[in-house]
Write a structure and sequence with these properties.
The chain is of the alpha+beta class and about 240 residues long. Helix content is about 45%, strand content about 20%. α4 packs across α6. It starts with a helix and ends with a strand.
Length: about 240
């Protein structure tokens, strides 16, 4: 084979290689564009005023911790330093109507409380009942079952707040409105439903959870409460005003 034939054969091979390389580069380019568009869409979605959890759409409430603290200090008790102090004073405070013990009702159920205690000031206890009444009214209007929402946190002591900060990085590093008995958390992970035999089971209904969020939005506009949507804990943190 002559040198010219060898050269021409090599050129033909290079030409054949160009087409696959161009195709590969085109595919890579399309993938990069898709990744960019997806990231942009995700950022836009995350900055919206709505949080999507499962098929539940809940409002992204944004009342700051300083706002919660302002109302907590205005309407709440002096914080307890420890469980020991709470135990020594709680009976007298309940008798004096400074605190009310919160138990399961026809509207809500109290979840296991690992870092808080089932007490609220009367003003906050009344708000909890109002939320329940309005929520159930909306459920009835939409022909939904009488679901119960779950309260996951109430009164805390300084001691329990410190413990919570060690186990939950989402807990506020500064003072919490939970210390004043004016605040409570309601989860939007799920709901509860009474069983035939009087027990309760966990259920999920995205549309019903949306009605719960709608209830809070109405009360926020009426200046009855302040609220922030906590995404990591999937709960509404609510303070009476």
């Amino acid at each position: 084979m002559t040198i010219s034939k060898i050269y021409n054969t090599a050129r033909k091979r290079r030409r054949k290689l160009k087409t696959p390389v161009k195709r590969a580069l085109a595919v890579i380019g399309i993938l990069l564009v898709c990744i960019f568009v997806f990231s942009l869409f995700r950022n836009i979605s995350n900055s919206s005023d709505e949080v999507i959890y499962g098929n539940a759409h809940v409002d992204k409430f944004k009342d700051l911790n300083l706002v919660h603290l302002r109302f907590a200090r205005a309407y709440g008790i002096s914080p307890f330093h420890s469980r020991k102090e709470l135990d020594s004073k709680i009976d007298d405070m309940v008798r004096a109507d400074k605190l009310i013990k919160i138990t399961d009702s026809r509207y809500y159920t109290i979840s296991y409380l690992s870092h808080s205690y089932p007490y609220l000031v009367p003003r906050a206890a009344d708000l909890l009942g109002i939320i329940g009444e309005r929520f159930h009214k909306k459920l009835k209007e939409k022909n939904k079952d009488n679901y119960l929402f779950k309260v996951t946190s109430l009164l805390r002591t300084n001691e329990s707040q410190k413990r919570l900060r060690r186990s939950n990085s989402n807990a506020t590093p500064s003072a919490s409105s939970h210390l004043y008995g004016t605040s409570f958390d309601i989860t939007y992970r799920n709901l509860a439903k009474k069983t035939f035999f009087g027990g309760k089971k966990t259920v999920y209904d995205g549309a019903a959870i949306g009605l719960l969020s709608e209830t809070l939005q109405e009360l926020q506009k009426e200046r009855r409460l302040v609220v922030v949507t906590e995404r990591k804990e999937a709960c509404f943190h609510i303070t009476v005003r």
